[in-house]
Amino acid sequence: MSEVLLSVSGLCAGYGDIAVLRDVGLEVTQGSVVAVLGANGAGKTTLLSAIAGLIPTQAGETRFAGARITGKRADQLTGQGLAMVPEGGRLFPFMTVWENLQLGAFTPGARAELPRRLEEMFSLFPVLRDRAKQHAGKLSGGERQMCAIARALMSGPRLLLLDEPSIGLSPLMTERVLDTVRTLARDRGLTVVIVEQRVSEVLEVADIAHVLDHGRIVRSGLASELRDDRQIQETYMGL
């Protein structure tokens, strides 16, 4: 049986007095790709932000690799092996690709392996080697997303949280990004939790999927089963 890498139970979170997530629970096993689906405003980004320590939780517990991480800051969690790529990537546009990647290796362990990790990212994303001295703001949408994922991978995470990686990308580039997610999980054993609006595409890559509605998980199951579910098709795929 695969190891449970991430466990969330009874999670409530939001912004100020506004509650967004209500009693959310899920488990993510090592090496799996888990998709989180839902309409705009369902709480998908809030869920990733709460797991990553970017916003405080109001109730509940989050455990990572067996350790309780509830209340820990994002920088502390990065050192433990958790990284997040926010929507839009949020690169530093006036810094080069090389400089952005360096920033991803800010933990002592990652900094000690900086040359090896840079070479690993350039092997995984060859276009970044060609653009290494170019300002990130000059990259195409697909190149920016690759750079954002590579920057997160520079910390050597066990768990990668991806928020809407296809935003602003063409269907072809979306396919390439999702293929990369599949490769990272299959060949490198990386665990990925991905929020994505392109439901049919992400369900081709994911192993498990959860559907959020008004801050609660209302459906969970194998991605293949949800992909063939008529209600999911009509609600999220327009079929």
Description:
By secondary structure, the protein is α/β, with parallel strands linked by helices. It has a single domain, classed as 3-Layer(aba) Sandwich (Rossmann fold). Helix content is 40%, strand content 28%. The protein is built from 11 helices and 10 strands. The strands form 2 sheets. A 6-stranded mixed beta sheet has the order 6-7-8-3-9-10, with helices on both faces. Strands 2-1-4-5 form a 4-stranded antiparallel beta sheet, covered by helices on one side. The model has no long low-confidence stretch (mean pLDDT 91).
Largest sheet: 6 strands, mixed
- Would you list the SSEs in sequence order as H and E? EEEHEEHEHHHHHEHEHEEHH
Overall structural class, as computed from helix and strand content, comes to: alpha/beta
Q: What is the level 1 CATH name?
A: Alpha Beta
Low-confidence stretches: none
Task: Indicate the proportion of strand residues.
Answer: 25-35%
Counting DSSP E segments of at least 2 residues, the number of strands comes to 10
Spatial order of the strands forming the largest sheet:
6-7-8-3-9-10
**Oligomeric description of these chains:** single chain
Distance between the termini: 35 Å
Under the CATH scheme, the architecture is: 3-Layer(aba) Sandwich
Rg: 17 Å
What name does CATH use for the topology? Rossmann fold
The share of residues in helices is 25-40%
Rough outline: globular
CATH superfamily: P-loop containing nucleotide triphosphate hydrolases
Quick check: average pLDDT? 91
Please, how many helices?
11
Number of structural domains: 1
